[in-house]
C-alpha cells in the first residue's frame, strides 16, 4: 500500500489518478489480507484473545474505513498527520503543568500554537514570530493580515527577518 502511495506521490498524481492507481494495485493485496485474517479467525488458527487475534479482529471491524481510499478520491492512506498534530497538543498540555502560574502557561501555549501553525503551513516559526515582534503596531491594527498562512516567504525576507536560507541552516 505504501509503495503504491509512494508511486502516486512521485508521479504527482491528482486525487482521481491516485484513486485509479490504488484501485489497480491495492485492491488485490487488501482483499488478500482480509481473506487471510478471516481464515485465521474462522479456522481458529489464532486465538481471538491473543495479540494477533485482537489485531485481526480490529482490522476486520474497520474494513470499510481501511478500504475507503479505494472508493473516495483524496482519502489519505493513514492518519499519521493527525496523530502527529495530536502529539503536539499532548506535549503542550503536559508541559503546561510545570509553569509557575496560569498566565505563563497561557503565553507559552499561545507561542507553541503559533509555532505549530507556522510549521503546518511551511513557514519558519522564528521568522514569523520575529516579523510579529518587529511589526507589532501593524499587527495590533490588522492581526488577520499577520497570520502565518497569509505571510508569503518573500514578505518575511523583505521585512528583514531571519530565515533558514539566510542562516545557512
Automatic annotation (TrEMBL):
Residues 1-105 form the Transposase IS66 central domain. This is Transposase.
